[in-house]
Structures are given as structure tokens and as C-alpha cells.
Amino acid sequence: MILLIITLICIIIIILLIYYFSSKAKTNNTNSANPKATSTTSIIITTSTASTADVKNIMVEGWGSNDFSQINIPRNLVNVIAISAGNTHSLALEKDGTVIGWGNNNYGQINIPKDLKNVIAIDAGSNFSLALKNNGTVVGWGSNNYGQINIPKDLTKIIAISAGDGHSLAIKNDNTVIGWGDNNYGQINIPKDLTNVIAVSAGQNHSLALKNNGTVIGWGYNYDGQIDIPNGLTNVIAIGTSFNYSLALKADGTLVEWGKNLLNQDPVPYNLKDVIAIDVGTFHSLALKNDGTVVGWGSVKIPSNLSKVKAITAGGFFSLALKNIEK
Length: 327
Prior knowledge:
By secondary structure, the chain is mainly β. It has 1 helix and 21 strands. The protein has one helix spanning 2-26, and strands at residues 58-64, 80-85, 89-94, 99-103, 119-124, 128-133, 138-142, 158-163, 167-172, 177-181, 197-202, 206-211, 216-220, 236-242, 245-250, 255-259, 275-280, 284-289, 294-298, 309-314, 318-324. It is globular, with a radius of gyration of 18 Å. The N and C termini lie far apart (53 Å).
């Protein structure tokens, strides 16, 4: 009887913790993690982007929490080439350069600007959204409590973007980085000597950059060692961030993590290999393998029939995938 009571108390505590962090993530003054981090070496081909060769045979699938209809995939989606999951909202980029959003709209994060077109990359932050256009300019909408969608004046020649919790990052065509928005922990204080950057990832209060030599640089909040790059980390091809946690994909298909997993999120599965893409959500992480299957750890359960996946994105308590239509 005593054991049963202890078990029930533990379950209640876990539920209350999850509710607390979930509610905290949904407030306008949120300190929630960036559920979708840019982890790419290209301005178009990201961890959430599929090949444009045959987009008519590509579909979007979602699983996990649906409290804001964030996995209710719109029926009018056609020719999708990229997806991005925010805290409780979802974005899709179509081949014609237009963007579609669904899910939570409490802060206007899915109010796509009417004149937005010629988009080549998207990223969903906690409660805001960013889009990169083919002319190298950036457009933002949604929550702006930290100035995260106040795009710097005359910002042009951008080749990659990343939306965090309250700050945003972008890579210029000279492979330098610029940031704007929340800077309470120095997360947009770009290191002065940072050059040759090919990917960036904006987390909750920290930032990562991947250089063209396969090394990683971090700055911002470091209470849990989330910017303490492991000694000898090289040959990295993708990066991801969330809360006080960082993840890297190496060229050999293996993963390296550092920082703290919130609520004791499970570590990277033992002997996980053959990974070609990663993404980090609020309480879970995803890895796409070269056989088109997906592996997840933390608060996530991968659908048993999920296969032929081309791209992944991890949100607050949900995930999206681009996959080939079964024939």
C-alpha cells in the first residue's frame, strides 16, 4: 500500500513538472527552449527540407501533442519542400516559395504576411517565425517581446536563419553571423573573430555556430555547460539546441551531446549510427537515419509505421516529418 502511494505521488509530481514547463513555454514572457534549431550546411537543404525533385510524392506527418492543432496537417498543402515546428505551431514551405502555418496563433506566429513570397528557408521559434527570401532578406512575424522579429535595418545578403526562444540568428554571405532580440545572457554577442560559419542554432539563452572546418563555437548562457564544446569535437556537419542542451551530428553519422537534458531527458541512444539529420525539441530529440527511419529520445514516441522519411523537425511536445507517399 505504501509503495502504491509513493508511486502515485511520483506520477503526480512528474505531471505537475511537465504542466509547469509547458505552461511556462506558452507565456509571452517565456523562457522556453527553441524547439526548432537550424542545423544545416546550406541555405535551402536543412534538417527540415526534402529534395525538390519529386515533391508531389511527399507528404507531411505529425505526432505527439495536439493541444493547439499543431499536428492537424492542412489539406491544402501541396509541393511541400520544408517544415519547421515551433513550441506549439507549425510551418511549411512550398515549392512556389509560399509559406503555410497552422497550430497556436496566440501571438500571430502563423499569421503569414500576405505579401510574403519567394521564400527559400523557414524557421519556427518558440512563439514567432522567420522566413528567408531568395533576395537575401529576412521576414519575421509573431511574438516580439524581445525584439526577435525586429529585423535589423538594411539586413541583406543572408544565406541562413535560426529562430530561438527570444533571439534570432542569421548567416551573411561572407559567412559571418548577426543576431538580434533577447541578449540577457549574451546570446547575440557574436564572438568578434567568428568567421567561416556554415550553420547556426539559436537555443533558449545560448547560441551555437558550425564552422566550415567542422568545429563548433558556442556563446551565451552556460549554467549547465551548454556552450562548453567537448574537447576534440571535429567533423561536425549539423548542430541543434534546446533549453540548456546542445547536440551535434558528425560526418560519420554519430552524435555528440553536452549540457543538461531537461527533466532528465534520455541520453542519445547507445550505438546510434548512420544518422543524416537531427533536430532538438523542448523535451525530445530526433535523428533521421539514412534508411529513412527516425529515432527519438526523451518525451517522444515514434509512430511504428514511420518510414521513407526525408526530413524531420521537433517542436514543443510534437514532431513533424516529410516522407515519401506510400505506393
